[in-house]
Design a protein that fits this description.
Layout (H helix, E strand, L loop, with lengths): L3 E5 L6 E5 L22 E2 L5 H5 L5 E6 L4 H17 L4 E6 L4 H6 L7 E6 L2 E7 L4 H12 L1
Parallel strand pairs: 3-5, 4-5
Antiparallel strand pairs: 1-2, 4-6, 6-7
Bound molecules: zinc ion.
Length: 144
């Protein structure tokens, strides 16, 4: 008997209930039928954020802005990490320029800021970009 998990869809953002043991069997969304995992970060706004932050799947958020050089440098590292960390973790990006309500809700003072959420709670955060290996190590450390 496998544990049921709530996982938000990266396309329609509706919450799905799926067996934890079936996470790596390319599950599809029960609502929009699209793949629940794409191997790439999902862009979130204030309408879709809570659905993902409140799911049982850990959410790693990159708070960034288009004018931020270190953010742009870190983007490929973050995108590639999605392929390695899914389906244990969901990676998401929040453009703080467009989503100022989210940036202020989390008190983002410098970018990039990386935040890990699960079940609606913040588990960890760090300010500043990291090299690829260090980033994946940091995520794994926070999630034990
Ligand atoms: Zn969907």
């Amino acid at each position: 008997m496998s544990q049921l998990m709530i996982v938000a869809c990266p396309h329609c953002h509706r919450k799905n209930r799926i067996e934890a043991a079936r996470l790596d069997e390319s599950p599809r969304c029960g609502v929009c039928k699209a793949a629940l995992f794409m191997g790439e970060p999902v862009d979130l706004d204030s309408g879709s954020f809570n659905s993902h932050a409140g799911s049982d799947l850990p959410l790693v958020v990159d708070f960034w802005a288009p004018w931020c050089g270190p953010c742009r440098q870190f983007a490929p590292t973050f995108a590639k990490a999605a392929g390695e960390l899914e389906p244990r973790v969901r990676l998401a990006k929040v453009n703080t320029e467009e989503q100022q309500a989210l940036a202020s809700r989390f008190g983002i003072r410098s970018i990039p800021t990386l935040l890990i959420m699960r079940g609606g709670k913040e588990l960890a955060r760090v300010a500043g970009a990291m090299p690829p290996g260090q980033f994946i190590q940091w995520v794994n450390q926070q999630l034990g």
